[in-house]
Amino acid sequence: MSDPADRDDDELVHLLKAYQAGELAAFERLYAALAGELQRYFQGQKAEGAAAQDLVQDTFLEIHRSRHTYLPPLPVRPWVFGIARHVLGRHRKAAWRRSRHEDRAEAAEAAAAPAPALETRDLANALARLPASRREAWVLHHVHGLSFQQIADRFRIGVGAAKLRSSRAMRSLRAALGAEAETKGTPDG
Question: How far is Cα 166 from Cα 99, in angstroms, rounded to an integer?
């Protein structure tokens, strides 16, 4: 008495051989026999709903492409599930790449996001605390757009000194405005 599993395996071998010979009906019966098992396999691998169904379709597409590699009378299920494992691996690798790309895009977007709005009053207060020579060099360069050569000529100093005054003013402003922003973020601010 033969085992029903053996008869089922023999039927799959017969169907795949017929499909290799070009019988479309054999493919349809092969699909009907294996699609449910593949769906359960992918769901067991944490592919849910539409993703599992897409993986089943991708697996049958690969079966179609590589049907000539099947060697009868070898069992069909191990061959099909080997293809399914490769399809799942490609799917996971693509998902990993997509997530890395999205993470990089989000990081770039966050880095390019505009700085929080600066209150004019905060800037005016921070500028007022700077020594006059630094404040004037910074305002002339960053607000009025004068070159460091023009600032140096105006104050009768060297270009390096004009750059230094503006740079020190910028450092002081960043420190002052950064501290104010931190203070405003606290419940006391």
Answer: 43
CA gap 110, 118 in Å, rounded: 18
Please state, in angstroms and rounded to a whole number, the distance separating the CA atoms of residues 16 and 140: 82
Q: In which residue are the tokens 């004068």 written?
A: 146
What is the sign, positive or negative, of the torsion defined by CA atoms of 34, 17, 75, 92?
Answer: negative
pLDDT tens digit sequence for 135-170: 999 989 988 888 999 999 999 999 899 999 999 999
Query: Is pTM, for the whole model, over 0.85?
Result: no
- Range list of H helices, 45-158: 49-65, 76-112, 120-128, 132-138, 148-155
Q: How far apart are CA 23 and CA 16, in angstroms?
A: 9
d(CA 117, CA 22): 68
Q: Would you state the structure tokens that stand for residue 66, as one six-digit string?
A: 């590589």
